[in-house]
């Protein structure tokens, strides 16, 4: 099977992938977590990865982030091999409670990314305020993460990631721990933030509806070892809408297809 | 586990070996340092003439006597303060006024009141041991499941039985943690008193060795004192694990 | 609620005053020889006399100086060494067990060694105080660095933060509750060792003052010195609490 990356390159008129997995295998502690994974993500694409727990979807994300190095194969970013994490790639962790600095206020947590990017301290406050407003946290700059709800903390983490001005946003089940209402609100906000920034997104989730609702493309991974089992293009109109999109016949068709796939893998 | 403990030994062994080689190569003549081999010889010598054993006995006697007295007083006060909130609140200022006095500052008072010897050392050790036991046992009693106290009341246990049958057993794991901390403090205070002024025990032994310009013997005492401190700690940790399981260790944070 | 707390406080002070009155009574009735036990009136008079003549001021300053220098040196060195050991897995495996082994050593046992090396000098006292006070700080730092949330290190990596920035912006603040607890413990150790060193080496300070007073059977001066040492212990520990409270405000929010 030709790798997805090569397939994408072969088609004229379609830009080269921003992130490309080429025959990536990862062995951790004697266990093959991911085997021969090839995958290309175009600039500005919103790619969702779904699969049963233990299928390696989070691991794939960490490979894309440069937090892991493949045992064999290559992960390329803009045509360059990924040897370490880089600031153009921001990662939103699922456990926001652990990924925020508890000793810094909301403003301080956003500031961390600006400091790392070398922004002069005089310019930071305005930018921080702007970012907090963008994620819907105006007026919470002085609060510590522990004084915020789960949804607010995740917004804060997203604000910090946006402060990196990332070309790619990696999101690891970012809304997995949130209640349904908060989750839907954040889904729409992420969509509009991404549309505004033009960032490429890889979004890992175990929620099939969420994957179809958000993505341009959905990939389902098979477990033990992790490999691609299904790949679906989502041709739903944008901007998406919580009611009409979810009732769209195409949505229901994709949902059915994905559902059958997941059910088959569980047997 | 074994690989890690082997790694743990690398540094101390390397330091000792390097020191030995250096001392021999330079024909070390010093009032404060001696090569490890001579320290070991001095330690054997001190064992052979029983001097270090007598000193150990004296120090441990003061340590444990002070620890026992301090623990009993601390425990009695701690349990009383834990049960009777009124008493605790009324005594707060008094306790907070006495507690910060560094135990060693009592040394001159104990000295003029009791003279040199075991008694003054025991008093100072006991004073130092009272506070951790008091504070931790008070906290332990307060944190007893209220349901247990209700049971005690429902059974109409008289106060003395309530203390012995409910409160002490329920608070025992944390009280033992306090005891373990106090035991470490007791040894430190005993040795410190001996080094500062009291002419008995290991502390006096190490001071005498220093004044006699016997660095080998002085360092042998230092090693031995360290070994006793370590052994006491290990013994109490093991006892705590045996008696109460690992759960008790969580009380350390208190 | 606040009013009740205030009333309890007042009652508690009254009880303490009662104890002082009892002490006065015992002294007045000479139940204990006045050679050993001065009344609070005589101890107070000695305090006032000592401060107005400036004698006690200089003794107090001496003790505070020993304590502060030793403690500060221990804090700086303890945090630095602890950070080096704690931020490297290799160092933790090879060095930390030796530290754990040395921890229960009664630190005062190092005094004769320090005397042999440095004599009965100010330098000896500072060395001993710093050596004694470094352990709680260093061990707390090692522990605190080892307990940093791994996710935060990943955040740091994805932000491409430098090693120095990771230490100062992630590891140190994360370990700060442990470090401050260690520094608080060390404060007590520093005070005790200051007193011991002053007694042994005859250095200017409250330790020396109380010993001389005891030798001369000036019990009022002796008690004045001990009370002052108690106040020193109390004030330094309150100051430390305030600093902790201020620096760890984020932790209070967490609860």
UniProtKB/TrEMBL annotation, chain A:
Top-level taxonomic group: Bacteria
Gene Ontology MF term list: ATP binding; ATP hydrolysis activity
InterPro entries: AAA+_ATPase, ABC_transporter-like_ATP-bd, ABC_transporter-like_CS, ABC_transporter_ATP-bind, P-loop_NTPase
Record keywords: ATP-binding, Nucleotide-binding, Transport
Secretion signal span: none
UniProt entry tagged with the keyword Transport: yes
All copies of domain ABC transporter, residue ranges: 19-248
Functional summary from the UniProt entry: Involved in beta-(1-->2)glucan export. Transmembrane domains (TMD) form a pore in the inner membrane and the ATP-binding domain (NBD) is responsible for energy generation.
Family: Belongs to the ABC transporter superfamily.
Protein name per the record: ABC transporter
Organism for this UniProt entry: Bradyrhizobium valentinum
UniProtKB/TrEMBL annotation, chain B:
Broad class of where this protein is predominantly found: membrane
Protein name: ABC transporter permease
Keyword Kinase: no
Secretion signal, residue range per the UniProt entry: none
UniProt domain ABC transmembrane type-1: residue ranges: 56-236
Superkingdom of the source species: Bacteria
Pfam families: BPD_transp_1
GO biological process: transmembrane transport
UniProtKB/TrEMBL annotation, chain C:
GO biological process: transmembrane transport
InterPro entries registered for this protein in UniProt: MetI-like (IPR000515), MetI-like_sf (IPR035906)
Membrane topology (UniProt): Multi-pass membrane protein
CC per GO annotation: plasma membrane
Annotated localization: Cell membrane
Keywords, in A-Z order: Cell membrane, Membrane, Transmembrane, Transmembrane helix, Transport
CDD domains listed in its UniProt record: TM_PBP2
Membrane listed as a keyword: yes
Domain ABC transmembrane type-1 per the UniProt entry, residue ranges: 60-244
Family indicated by similarity: Belongs to the binding-protein-dependent transport system permease family.
Protein's recorded name: ABC transporter permease
Originating organism: Bradyrhizobium valentinum
